[in-house]
Amino acid sequence: MTRSGVLRPAGEVLAEFEALLDEVDPRRSGLDAAVRLEWVRAARRVRTRVEALAALLTAEADRANASQQAAGTQMSSWLGLGEPLSRREAAAAVGQARALVEHPLVGEAAVGGRIGTGQARAIGRVLDGLAPQLNPGQQSAAEQVMIDLARHLDADQLARSSGQVLAQVVPPDAGESEEVRLQREVEAARRARSLRVYREGALVRFEGCLPRVEGERFVSLLSAHAESVRRTALEARDPLSESTTTEQRKADAFIALLGSVEKAKPVSGVGGAKVIVKLDYHQLRRDAAGAGLIGEDQEVSAGELRQLCCDAELVSAVLGGPGEVLDVGRSSRLVTAPIRTALILRDGGCTFPGCDVRPELCEAHHIRPWWDGGDTALSNLVLLCHHHHGLVEPAKYGLRDQWSVQLRANGLPEFIPPARFDPARRPLQNQRTKAKSGSPPGVIARMTPGAGGGVPPGAERGVVTGAEWGVATGAEWGVATGAERGAQPVEAVETVGARVVDGRLAALGG
């Protein structure tokens, strides 16, 4: 709603706004910390809305062929004439603007400040991918569904929400099967794979995209190497050494990966990544087909899942029925492999509000400290990155006004801010856990770095026998056989619908 109730031309408003920016007082010393943060938030809101408006104006001018008529050149070239943009940056700006204007509701929400430009781009990509499967009415409904989702999902999470959107706008019996849809996405992703290399003086720049399975493998390896670089630097603590940014550590990790590849010799039978497979137990008993999720809850087809499992260590997690939560009580302060796997499945990474550090880089934090009698149990643990672990770790004598963490009634973490941050100390949640509403159906596979993992029987044929692996006999991974239950030691699993007895899975019930 405008202050006067009258809408004004965009050019008039922008000119007035630009003039007002010239009146900003540069003297900001002595400001209260809360005021500084309030101004940062306000400036970022304004930036988001102006970016969205600029994109819409760019797309509209491009559609009207304005640059050709006024300057005799295409829109991307015209942008480069008045701004210090490279050809690649200008072309990207025009491409992103076109995507925004193709979805009017998304553009309106972005200009109105209800969604960010990153969220708008993610929504556009998902809608474009779903378009061939939807009729015009369903496409409009999908656009509104995604705008609603943007209230509690960030851009990365929105980019992975196609399955959720499809489930809301297409009746269950009206569309193609989930497996067929996922297979179409796999084929489209493989066609879209790319890698571009740019040489700029002493630098080599590159950008591209990979299909999700290979991409997750790359990200996991890179993250593990980057964490190794960080820990090495911390252990060295050389005051003369140069401090590095996160981006520099990732670059160092990539360089180390290249060196490892150059030195490596082909070795037969070396274990691949660890894959944690989680199935809904009741759906498993109903002979469910094998579509699933990988990485940060990304959907993966049964074919991709079988491909992963041919060279991976498998860890099971059967969900959906009554059972016991893994708990070693006071017998061990250190988190066991089964409990850590359960933490990864529940938390998906650092649970601190606003943090998206991947689970393999996180540490397990005791909510009630071990020194205060806290148990090493899933109900007393959360995943936190190294930085946020330090913020949340309680002072032994309670002298700090600090963050604390607790589990909600649904078993997911929430954080209580210090009084200096919020006098009311209202709980906050990470977007990832906030968006969860129970265990998703079907098979979920998460890939974390690992080496030397064994391959269960039948994996070379794409078939894994034994419910102890969280999967079942048959090409579709959906049918459990009673004969194999409890036959193998448990590797790492939170079982709901199974009991852990002497390190083995007991009968899965029924």
What does this entry look like structurally?
The chain has 510 residues and is an alpha+beta fold. It has 18 helices and 13 strands. The chain has helices at 10-21, 33-63, 66-71, 75-82, 87-101, 104-111, 117-130, 136-149, 155-159, 162-169, 178-192, 212-236, 246-263, 281-285, 302-309, 337-347, 386-392, 431-434; strands spanning 194-200, 203-209, 274-280, 292-294, 298-300, 313-319, 362-366, 381-385, 404-407, 413-416, 443-448, 500-501, 504-505. Helix 2 crosses helix 5 and helix 12 crosses helix 13 (246-263). 32% of the residues are buried.
What is the element layout, followed by pairings?
Blueprint lengths: L9 H12 L11 H31 L2 H6 L3 H8 L4 H15 L2 H8 L5 H14 L5 H14 L5 H5 L2 H8 L8 H15 L1 E7 L2 E7 L2 H25 L9 H18 L10 E7 H5 L6 E3 L3 E3 L1 H8 L3 E7 L17 H11 L14 E5 L14 E5 H7 L11 E4 L5 E4 L14 H4 L8 E6 L51 E2 L2 E2 L5
Parallel strand pairs: 3-6, 4-11
Antiparallel strand pairs: 1-2, 3-11, 4-5, 7-8, 9-10, 12-13
Q: Give me the side-by-side strand order of the main sheet.
A: 5-4-11-3-6
Shape: globular
Span between N and C termini? 59 Å
**Low-pLDDT windows of residues:** 266-273, 280-296, 309-316, 318-325, 437-510
Number of helices: 18
In total, how many domains does the architecture comprise? Answer: 4
How many whole angstroms does the radius of gyration measure? 26 Å
